[in-house]
Amino acid sequence: MSATTPETMPETPTKLQLLELLAAIGTAQWRDFAAAAAHHGLTSTQAKVLAQLNGPLPMRALATLLVCDASNVTGIIDRLEGRGLVRREPDASDRRVKNVVATDEGREVIRRVREEMQATHGALDTLGAEDSATLYGLLARLRPGMENNA
Fold first, then answer.
1. Closest alpha carbon to 100 in 67, 61, 64
2. Is 41 left (phi over 0), alpha (psi -120 to 50) or beta?
3. Residue 98 is inside which H or E element, if any?
4. Rounded to an integer, what distance in angstroms lies between the CA atom of residue 73 and that of residue 62?
5. pLDDT tens digits, residue range 85-139?
6. Kind plus residue range of the DSSP H or E element containing 88
7. Which of 71, 112, 139, 149 is the least buried, fewest Cβ under 10 Å from its Cβ?
8. Reported pTM
9. What's the rounded Cα separation, in Å, for the pair 46 and 73?
């Protein structure tokens, strides 16, 4: 795929052109995320789990977010728990449900992973304040439709 520059940008891009650009950016961001995670001894999936834990999250919900079987999540959580990055807690309303909670160390590790995503930070640094605000607004408008249909 060729790079799109201001001189080669279509006046009105097609949905296919938009999809290809989103896919390319998503792939590059994921590679950057995985590289930063590896620097901290995490797989990209382990780091993704930490990134999702803004509060207690049931194991089954993690499986849904990761698009995998709940049994796979058990192994991932076992490894993260072994490193002291997460802990399991019984759910307050249903003690059969186990919630996963990031520890302080887990929150610190994912903060550092995000901070060390040099390619992504470098790309975002090329945007001025107005472009950053525009991009944020556009992505915020797309997000609900993308997440609700996942």
1. 61
2. left
3. strand 98-102
4. 7
5. 999 999 889 888 899 999 999 999 999 999 999 999 999 999 999 999 999 999 9
6. strand 86-90
7. 149
8. 0.83
9. 9
Burial class of residue 15, CB neighbours in 10 A (0-12, 13-18, 19+): exposed
What does the pLDDT look like over 8-35, one tens digit per residue? Answer: 677 899 999 999 999 999 999 999 999 9
Backbone dihedral angles phi then psi of residue 87, each to the nearest 5 degrees: -140, 155
Helix (H) or strand (E) holding 22, with range, is helix 15-39
As given in the structure block, the two tokens for residue 56 are: 């207690």
Q: Quick one: which of 78, 90, 10 has its CA closest to 49?
A: 78
Residues 6+ apart with CB under 8 A from 21: 4, 13
* Structure tokens given for 133: 């605000």
Helix (H, G, I), strand (E, B) or coil at 131: helix
Show the tokens assigned to 126: 């090329």
* Cα 109 from chain centroid (whole Å): 14
